[in-house]
Specification:
129 residues; alpha/beta; two-stranded antiparallel sheet; elongated
């Protein structure tokens, strides 16, 4: 049976006002969590082949730009690493800033901002931004 919460001011249910009006209750936070996980897993399966293709194409492009920035998810710092070409961008979230081992097979010209770990990449030529 669908979990329901009776509180009319439930924070988790605020996006579902029509549900509450129609059924007199809100979806419980645990139900919303299960739905969110199911959607996330489904979308991951759908987009994963495209993400892998983009990653491969940007890594082998003649010229690419690398950058990274920190941001917070759930109160913890994560790092968004970006590899861009003129027409494609590959985004990757990492727990550590220096998590660049996925770039070890990158080739060609790399444009970057002097961040030292980028100099450890082999088989590339650098243009500094």
């Amino acid at each position: 049976m669908l979990g329901l919460a009776q509180e009319s001011d439930s924070k988790a249910a605020r996006p579902f006002p029509n549900f509450a009006r129609g059924y007199g209750a809100y979806p419980s936070p645990s139900v919303l969590t299960k739905v969110a996980k199911t959607i996330t897993l489904t979308l991951t399966k759908i987009i994963e082949p495209t993400v892998i293709k983009i990653a491969s194409e940007v890594k082998t492009a003649p010229v690419k730009h690398l950058d990274e920035t920190g941001f917070r998810i759930g109160g913890k710092t994560k790092w968004l690493h970006v590899v861009s070409t003129e027409s494609l961008t590959w985004y990757r979230v990492a727990d550590k800033r220096k998590d660049i081992e996925v770039l070890t097979d990158i080739k060609g010209v790399v444009v970057h901002d002097h961040w030292n770990p980028y100099y450890q990449l082999e088989d590339v030529n650098w243009i500094l931004d």
